[in-house]
Amino acid sequence: MITRKMTIIAQDPSIKDSKGKILRSRVDIPYEKLGPGPRGFRVHIVDYDSSQQVLYRPLDHKHYANQDKDPFENVPDDKLLQDPGFHAQNVYAIIMRLLSRFEAALGRRISWGFGFHQLHATPHAFAEANAYYSEDAQGLFFGYFPVTKGEIVYTCLSHDIIAHETTHALLDGLRDTYTVPSGPDQAGFHEGFSDVVALLSVFGLSDVVKALLSRKQPESNYIQKNELQVEALRKSVLLGLAEQFGKEISRHRADCLRRAVVRKPRIDAQQIHDFEESHIRGEILSAAVLNSFIQVWRKRLESWLPNEGKAVAVDRVVEDGCDAANHLLTMCIRALDYCPVVDITFDDFLSALLTADFELLPDDGKYKYREELRKEFKLWGIEPASGTKTQFQKGEVPELGIWKKPSGESEKPLDYECVHRESLQQDKNEVFRFLWENRESLKIFENAYTWVISLRPCMRLAPDGFALKETVAEYRQTLDIQAGQLRSVCKDMEKPKGMPDSTQIRLNGGGVLVFDDFGHLKYHIHSRIDDPDRQNKRLEYLWRNRIIDSKKRYGFSDGSPEGQRFARMHLRRDRRIEPKEEWEDE
Amino acid sequence: MSNNKRNKSIQQKKPEQVKITMYDVGFGDCFLLTFSYAGGEKRHVLIDCGSSSEKKEHMTKVVDQLFKDSEGSVDAIVVTHRHKDHLSAFGLKGPGEKLGKLNPKIVIQPWTEHPEAKEEDLKPPTVFTGAVRHLKSPSAAQEFANYLVNYSDKILAAAGSRTLSQITRLASLDIENKEAILQLNKMCKKHAYVYNGSKSGLEKLLPGVRVSVLGPPTLAQTETIRSQTQRHKEEFWELFNRLAAKSESNLATAKGKSELFPRAQADPVAKSPSYVKWLIRKLDSAQLQNVQRIVRELDKALNNTSIILLFEIGDKALLFPGDAQLENWQYALEDQNLQKRLSKVEVYKVGHHGSTNATPRKKLWDLFKYRNTKKPRLISLLSTRKGHHSEVPRESLVNTLNSETELHSTEKFGRKLSEDYEIRI
Ligand SMILES: [Zn+2]
Ligand SMILES: [Zn+2]
Question: Is the pTM here over 0.95, yes or no?
Answer without folding.
Answer: no
